[in-house]
Amino acid sequence: MKKSFPAASEGARRRATLSDVAQMAGVSNATVSRVLAGNYPVSVTTKNRVMRAVRQLDYVVNAQARALQAGASRTIAFVLHDITGPSFAEAAAGVEEEAARYGRLCVVCTTNGSRERQSKVIDLMRAQGAEAVILIGGTDNDEESHGRLVAYARSLAAAGSRLVLCGCPPPREPLPVTVIDYDNEAGAYAATAHLLSQGHRRILFVGKGEGYTTSEARFAGYLRALTSFGIEPDPELQVVVDFSRAASVRAMREVLARQVAFTAVFAASDMTAAGCMQVLREQGRKVPEDVSVVGYDDIPMTIDMTPRLTTVHVPYRELGRAAVRHVMELDPAARQDIDHVVLGTHLMVRESVAPPAVEPA
Amino acid sequence: MKKSFPAASEGARRRATLSDVAQMAGVSNATVSRVLAGNYPVSVTTKNRVMRAVRQLDYVVNAQARALQAGASRTIAFVLHDITGPSFAEAAAGVEEEAARYGRLCVVCTTNGSRERQSKVIDLMRAQGAEAVILIGGTDNDEESHGRLVAYARSLAAAGSRLVLCGCPPPREPLPVTVIDYDNEAGAYAATAHLLSQGHRRILFVGKGEGYTTSEARFAGYLRALTSFGIEPDPELQVVVDFSRAASVRAMREVLARQVAFTAVFAASDMTAAGCMQVLREQGRKVPEDVSVVGYDDIPMTIDMTPRLTTVHVPYRELGRAAVRHVMELDPAARQDIDHVVLGTHLMVRESVAPPAVEPA
DNA sequence: ATGAAAGCGCTAACAT
DNA sequence: ATGTTAGCGCTTTCAT
């Protein structure tokens, strides 16, 4: 005997309000509010009556009404290109985790790298009254992007919110912004130096994305390591591609076809490394016997690659956490300056690097 | 000369309201509202004056106020265990993508599998007035879990919202719920049948999570395939573990230590498969020459595994999209019944399966 | 074409 | 300890 349930058969019933509770409990609105907030003395008997009504009506506050009255919405916005990227997902987890700890809601928006969509999202978040808007990922390193960032920071600040930049360098001018960065350059230096100290001299850099901050910093670290080992950088060894897997596959095929000589690859991201390794395997070049490979990001799948990928660990989860924590703990009075944090990176040595093979005579 | 910017130096200034705009433009609130909504005739000159004020004040609506007035909040909630799992991330992307298409905001909450946290999150979402609450992932298959789901569905429905279950079987009783499922059992059947048709007879099933819907359905498919090939299931070949990588590594080591004989592994998830392959490799067993392996989920990293993993493709992104679409397009009047959709799964044949090696004489 | 005013659900000051 | 009331920012009748 299936008994149909009243709620559904009545369709979308009006949700219970605080007044409903008050009426049922025979008290005033204020009393109900006080019972729920628990920040004010209320007699035990009334409290019980109110709580019974709350349960009976299955009442929950209207967050909109509360936010309107409070003038703040207890939400954190997280804006990224694509939640599917493992490193972004990791950062998102950090943000969500920490937001939950502070009792904040976490709104996620993706932009697919579209500037237009980014602007729209920022406005949406201002409309929401988000306490912070966390932008993750490197940015384009041109005047126009910088200008947009400045505008975002200011309009957000003017509304009592705060822009947080994750994983990109701080703007050059004073701006009400929090920057949680990690040491991209040092990680790249360490990775390259590792290769050099194994004896590699011709190291292919794959992922020289021009005008993109993350990419530029990694490339800079590569260059610095080369220089400090007294090696002249060779433009032929610098492959310009974005961080996508597909792009690196294409690029790597092209490099191999051109017969460029190299004994090691420093891929600017693990995805890039995955693409390179696929092509190397296709062409019968063994990693690390024939070619050593180092990646960047230390995404979880690196340990399932064969050989396990040596890569630069980036603390993405902590990046997300720190972003939230900094905003939550920042004294709103002291908010005008740039608030800049740099997290460390370090090399994870695994199995994709070996000394270069001796030249066949 | 660094000019300091006014907004920041004044600290968190009050954000501009519609009244501010009205005042600056010298019109009434109603007029501003109408200009912004664009759903009402307004003279061109007034419109221009209003728009100028909007730009000058950098005004954006207060979403809370609007939602309060409208009685609806244009947000979709997405609740999952852990955003870091590649398949969940994929589904999340689908939800976000489709939500954006409908102009909805997407709130993400993780529960880490805690029931307590799940309840809290549901209430939070009721408070937010989310139009839909999408729960993704299998559920425990016990009375208590079922009871919770019933309660969620009803209280959400009572508030004009809707519960959407993604990737789990529909509840046994009529309930105001939308279920977007995929054919777990058929996928498992196909995977197992593939192995069987290659000649494998002793197939290890890793990931028999007891009382967990996803796991049970996959196991059922395995069993059915065995039966239809006239093979007696062997309990020794059924390994009980959750879907985590770490658990499968432990389990696989234990199985190998026990010297259980098998020529193929059907892992109930790709993560499980990754763990199994790691252990197999550690112990010098080649895939697929010595042991064939099939996974489940088809997460992106499967193509970077060596050998590339043969696995069952699950349309996670479409799952997320369908969840949103169904709620958005459902006539609220027709909302009482269970709304059930089943998406298909199919086998992705790659390189981790080969016929079993001939017994060494 | 525009304005005045009520009210969405809640909290907090101000009574009592 | 409890009630009354104003108002958060917006949309939307109802007037004009």
TrEMBL record, chains A, B:
Q: Which Pfam families match?
A: LacI, Peripla_BP_3
What sequence ranges are listed for the domain HTH lacI-type?
Answer: 16-70
Q: Which domain of life is it from?
A: Bacteria
Q: What is this protein called?
A: LacI family transcriptional regulator
InterPro entries registered for this protein in UniProt:
HTH_LacI (IPR000843), LacI/GalR-like_sensor (IPR046335), Lambda_DNA-bd_dom_sf (IPR010982), Peripla_BP_I (IPR028082)
Q: Which SUPFAM superfamilies does this entry report, sorted A to Z?
A: lambda repressor-like DNA-binding domains, Periplasmic binding protein-like I
Write the record's keywords in alphabetical order, separated by commas: DNA-binding, Transcription, Transcription regulation
